[in-house]
Amino acid sequence: MTHTYIPHGVCSRQMNVELDENGVITNCEIIGGCAGNTTGICELVKGMNAEDAIRRMKGIDCRGRGTSCPDQLANALEEALEKI
Could you report the per-residue pLDDT of 9-38, keeping only the tens digit for each? Predict the structure, then answer.
């Protein structure tokens, strides 16, 4: 199942996450933002259980914005899990 999320308060413009039926992240794409960091984040979470990834990334702040690309990816994964 693929889920598209529009992040808020960060440089990235769109996040596409794919989860299998067990909630494991099979693919991740972040459009916009710092390319090296967002590509790295996606590579790190592939194969990870979405709930574990959420726990690790939720609440990470970027330069006092109150959110970050990892935090927004956690939000995207929460939404995606609701659809399984």
Answer: 999 999 999 999 999 999 999 999 999 999
Whether the pTM exceeds 0.85: the reply is yes
Asked whether the beta carbons of 13 and 32 are under 8 A apart, the reply is: yes
Who's near 77: CB < 8 A, 6+ residues apart? 17, 19, 25, 50, 53, 54
In three state form, how does the secondary structure of the chain look?
CEEEECCCCCCEEEEEEEECCCCEEEEEEEEECCHHHHHHHHHHHCCCEHHHHHHHHCCCCCCCCCCCHHHHHHHHHHHHHHCC
